[in-house]
Amino acid sequence: MPDPLRKLGGKAVASSEEWEQGRREEVLRLFEERVFGAGPVGRPRRIAFEVKPTEGWMGGSAVRKQVRIRSEGPGGENVVRLLLFVPVSAKERPVPAFLLINNRGSEHMDAAREKRSPFWPAEAIVARGFAAAVFDNADADPDHHDGFRDGVHGVFDPPGERPGHAWGTIAAWAWAASRAMDYLETDHHIDASKAAVVGHSRGGKTALWAGAADRRFALVVSNNSGCTGAAVSRGKGGETIRQINDRFPHWFCENYKAYNDNEYALPVDQHMLIGLIAPRHVYVASATEDLWADPESEFLGLTFASPVYRLYGMDGIAGLPMPTAEQPLHTNGMGYHLRAGGHDMTEYDWQRFMDYAERFLCD
Ligand code: GTR
Q1: Measured from the CB, is residue 227 less than 6 Å from ligand 1?
Q2: Counting CB atoms within 10 angstroms of each CB, which of 25, 314, 332, 334 has the fewest?
Q3: Distance CA 183, CA 360 (A)
């Protein structure tokens, strides 16, 4: 397993200063160049937020805000529709927020609250005093391989041949999460210094990359993210790098395909992606029957990231045994739980994320 605390030249990193002043940047660039790809734009020069607030939701306990995030680039305009339910208590004091990168279609984020989904239990999130925010990843980039013409690639990519490190679809979704954060920072009802980004499966891989690249997210939650998410690729069961690249050729950058059946040649592994989140909080959740994602390898992602957390005097989970089902392990810096059942994100998962946030994010 590559050592997060050893620079490419072999020099050891012994302090958080040394991590911050060189090694962190090196690891971030490696993930950009070899795995997710680099985007041509961060916060676009031309970005606008159109907000439509309405009162009286959830029995009067919430305000609904429908936000259109409009980003303009050389290829036209992209609109990400962000939906928020904010507890009315936010009028007295800004509230922390959970932002879900929704990869399961807009039926899980019904603005009218006629159709409720445990995948995004907005009522339960608001009841615990958090703002519930969500966007549909397809707004930023539809989840199919069209040669990177649609979505934000079509809006921002320079003309000509794409380099091997050009951003893939997961990087585009992560970019959109950062644009949602741009909005949250403008909303006086939200405490943007206490915002969590959450994703399930392909969305969980996205949440990790969003949180690694954008240090404004105070908590990163990765549910059943598996291959190229929280699970280390070396020795992983279930899905491999070859399988993910073959089935989803648009998710990562072209350079990543060099590691098909060749994970030991990668200069990084997924624990280093988690390490990039330090000293902010990271939460990984697995499910007992989700062997394609491989719970043990997801847990190892946290274990091997722990030395980076220790540089900041935070506990991490190194040395602790993997917990059994429904025995959450929450330390300062890292949270983990294993849910009994299959590949999904349920209200049980959300309640544990909120337990963690209440304890370590809120004062
Ligand atoms: C699977 C894929 C996984 C995971 C999952 C999902 O088909 O192999 O890596 O991302 O989809 O997003 O539900």
Answers
A1: yes
A2: 25
A3: 24
Please give the Cα distance from 199 to 270 (Å, whole number): 16
Question: Would you give the end-to-end CA distance of the chain in angstroms?
Answer: 37
> Which amino acid, one-letter code, is at 85?
F
Q: Cα separations (Å) of 89 from 86, 190, 273? A: 8, 11, 35
**Helices marked H in 56-214:** 122-127, 137-140, 151-156, 169-184, 202-213
CB atoms within 10 A of CB 91: 12
Rg (C-alpha) for the chain, rounded Å, is 19
Which among 248, 286, 289, 298 is the best mutation to test ligand 1's pocket, defined by most ligand atoms within 8 Å of the CB? 248
Torsion of CA 338, 293, 100, 37, to 10 degrees: 140
ipTM: 0.95
202 C-alpha to center of ligand 1: Å?
6
**Distance from C-alpha of 352 to C-alpha of 113, rounded to nearest angstrom:** 23
Contact yes or no for 217/210 (Cβ under 8 A): yes
201 is catalytic: yes
The pLDDT tens digits of the residues spanning 173-221 come to 999 999 999 999 999 999 999 999 999 999 999 999 999 999 999 999 9
Whose structure tokens read 């059943």?
224
Domains and CATH numbers, the chain: 16-361 (3.40.50.1820)
